Amino acid sequence: QVQLVESGGDSVQAGGSLSLSCAAPGRAFITNYSMAWFRQAPGKEREFVAGISWSGNSKNYADSVKGRFTISKDIGKSAIYLQMDSLKPEDTAVYYCAADQQKYSSVHTDQREFESWGQGTQVTVSS
Predict the structure, then answer these.
(1) Contact between 118 and 97 (Cβ < 8 Å)
(2) Burial class (CB in 10 A: 0-12, 13-18, 19+), 92
(3) Residue ranges of E strands in 10-66
(4) Judging by DSSP bridges, how do beta strands 69-74 and 79-84 pair with one another?
(5) Percent of the chain residues past pLDDT 90, beyond the cut
(6) By the 8 A CB rule, do 34 and 107 touch?
(7) pLDDT digits over 95-109, tens only?
(8) Cα(4)–Cα(16) distance, rounded to whole angstroms?
(9) Dihedral angle at the C-alpha atoms of 106, 108, 78, 58, nearest 10 degrees?
(10) pLDDT at 87 > cutoff 90
């Protein structure tokens, strides 16, 4: 397990945008492992938001964020990002970055497939 570091959480009004970042240990990490964003709202279970494959060629999104959120990666910066547009109050949650450390795996949505996690970053959307 390795520690991932998220940043970019903030408070915004509905309709606004935010960009979250997740710093990984290095280029090899980013290019070997599929990674994802999860979120957990107060009183709710942690849920899958978006994932990107080790190659970057495959992306997966939860239905609730399709068309509004975009996941991407920058190999040179050893980071993944989550661009969040048209934010809604129901997007309020702590957002976590996670890595599936099975080399060259497909994009999973089950959090049990992910071995490494960040500490989370708070996103609050007000109406």
Answers:
(1) yes
(2) middle
(3) 11-13, 18-23, 34-40, 47-52, 59-61
(4) antiparallel
(5) 88
(6) yes
(7) 999 999 988 888 999
(8) 26
(9) 50
(10) yes
Beta bridge partners of 69: 84
pLDDT above 80 for 120: yes
Single-letter amino acid code for the residue at 97: C
Q: Which helix (H) or strand (E) holds 95?
A: strand 93-100
The two three-digit tokens of residue 109, written as one number:
């949505």
DSSP reduced 3-state for 125: strand
pLDDT, one tens digit per residue, over 30-76 is: 899 999 999 999 999 999 999 999 999 999 999 999 999 999 999 99
Cβ atoms of residues 91 and 35 within 8 Å? no
